[in-house]
Amino acid sequence: MPAIVSPFAHPTWSALGDRAQIRRTKLGYSQAKVARHIGISVRDYAAMESGFVPPHIHENLSKIKLAELDDILEWEKGTAVNTVVAVLQPTSSPGTVAFTPGDRSTYSPAAWARLGTAVQKARLALKMTKPVLGYAIQSTGKSILRIEEGRIHGDPRTAPAGDYNSEKYLLKRLSLLEMALEWDAGQARQILDGTNVSPTP
Prior knowledge:
Blueprint: H1 11-27, H2 31-38, H3 42-50, H4 55-61, H5 66-72, H6 79-88, H7 109-125, H8 130-136, H9 141-148, H10 167-171, H11 174-180, H12 187-193
């Protein structure tokens, strides 16, 4: 499966990643050493430092014990947490603009919920499990669960931590979804647009 790279820097992890990279370099530590200490893969840690965090890596990073990052980087206790919180809930001060999340989705939550209902109905009619459908669209069973529940976001800042399912990522897989569910080409878009709400498998 090809690696999917986020089209823009993830706001939460890029802020922490920039700070961690500077500190790690100053201490002379490798990315591998820090990754081992906080219990994630080198690939996921490197993604954090780069700021470009695909959805599946975002989930892994959400499990980091930030106190462990403070420990390995010899930061004062709470530094990592405060860096993340500062991005999620910045304070307004003269000369700064507070972050206001705005979803970048092309389709509304109602449109994704409509597609999710249709996907679940078709999947069950075909007696297909979520992991099997996930494999068919080059994704995971967890992604299928989120599709069926309509939890799709255009921007990770609008999603709960560890619950980001990218609209851009999914839109590229609609044709695979249609093939797997035995829909006609274009039916998934029609459901999203509201012009075909109940395709038959």
